[in-house]
């Protein structure tokens, strides 16, 4: 294994076409920076910000920052959904908003100076069959200009584990590449439908394969198991151990120490954005 990314992504011409992302379970993400986190006491924040969150939104934001065309299909509901929509517009993120009945979730990330991250995530809005059909229609409507579709994030209440798999199956019938970033049974169902790329982290890779991932070699072996299950390529993020990309033609690893990490929020999403681009 080397540190270089294989050429099979870099030589693919996506000029003039959009990378479409799908976020079923978006969130209003508030990040709070504190000098230290003490349970049961008063902690005064020393910094922070609020932004529209969710894996697909994060991917589109990373692409937009590099002037790469992207569109986020997002389920929005309630006051939180209106806040999400306003933030997406303020950030000039091109989006297709699908209105749902229940309010979106709010998440809190507490970051300490040494990079320690504590996350509090709400469950998110339950989605009905009718709303899921509307989301599917919103995705399909954007396919004529899409080169890739990135289906990303957790599956909210009311959504069957098979939904991502059925979406992958339908997308593969069109002339688009499909990437999936989720976990648990939803990931397994999606892999069975043959996506072009999946992006588990270490814990998700272990869960999907039932084997420990302690080394880079373990990660490559586990990724090959996901290939055998149906995924064409696997991009696995391993935290401080870097990341591996396993494709039909071989595997590549890259890792670089970060002197003072402040937060890992969105890191995997930003990495995922780089491959379809």
UniProtKB/TrEMBL annotation:
<keyword id="KW-0418">Kinase</keyword>
<comment type="similarity">
    <text>Belongs to the carbohydrate kinase PfkB family.</text>
</comment>
<dbReference type="InterPro" id="IPR029056">
    <property type="entry name" value="Ribokinase-like"/>
</dbReference>
<feature type="domain" description="Carbohydrate kinase PfkB">
    <location>
        <begin position="29"/>
        <end position="275"/>
    </location>
</feature>
<dbReference type="Pfam" id="PF00294">
    <property type="entry name" value="PfkB"/>
</dbReference>
<dbReference type="GO" id="GO:0016301">
    <property type="term" value="F:kinase activity"/>
</dbReference>
<protein>
    <submittedName>
        <fullName>1-phosphofructokinase family hexose kinase</fullName>
    </submittedName>
</protein>
<dbReference type="GO" id="GO:0005524">
    <property type="term" value="F:ATP binding"/>
</dbReference>
<dbReference type="InterPro" id="IPR011611">
    <property type="entry name" value="PfkB_dom"/>
</dbReference>
<keyword id="KW-0067">ATP-binding</keyword>
<keyword id="KW-0808">Transferase</keyword>
<dbReference type="InterPro" id="IPR017583">
    <property type="entry name" value="Tagatose/fructose_Pkinase"/>
</dbReference>
<keyword id="KW-0547">Nucleotide-binding</keyword>
């Amino acid at each position: 294994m080397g540190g270089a990314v294989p050429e099979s992504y870099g030589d693919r011409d996506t000029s003039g076409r959009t990378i479409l992302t799908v976020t079923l379970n978006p969130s209003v993400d508030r990040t709070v920076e504190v000098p230290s986190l003490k349970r049961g006491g008063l902690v005064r924040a020393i910094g922070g910000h609020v932004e529209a969150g969710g894996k697909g939104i994060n991917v589109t934001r990373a692409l937009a920052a590099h002037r790469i065309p992207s569109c986020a299909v997002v389920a929005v509901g309630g006051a939180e959904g209106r806040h999400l929509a306003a933030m997406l517009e303020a950030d000039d993120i091109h989006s297709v908003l699908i209105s749902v009945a229940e309010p979106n979730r709010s998440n809190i990330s507490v970051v300490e100076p040494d990079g320690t991250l504590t996350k509090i995530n709400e469950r998110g809005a339950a989605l009905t069959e009718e709303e899921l059909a509307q989301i599917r229609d919103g995705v399909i409507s954007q396919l004529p200009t899409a080169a890739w579709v990135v289906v990303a994030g957790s599956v909210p209440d009311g959504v069957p584990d098979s939904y991502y798999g059925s979406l992958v199956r339908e997308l593969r019938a069109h002339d688009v590449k499909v990437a999936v970033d989720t976990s648990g049974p939803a990931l397994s169902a999606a892999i069975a439908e043959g996506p072009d790329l999946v992006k588990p982290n270490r814990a998700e890779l272990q869960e999907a394969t039932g084997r420990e991932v302690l080394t880079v070699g373990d990660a490559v072996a586990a990724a090959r198991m996901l290939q055998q299950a149906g995924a064409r390529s696997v991009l696995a993020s391993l935290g401080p151990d870097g990341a591996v990309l396993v494709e039909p033609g071989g595997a590549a690893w890259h890792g670089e120490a970060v002197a003072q990490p402040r937060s890992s929020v969105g890191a995997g999403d930003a990495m995922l954005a780089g491959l379809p681009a």
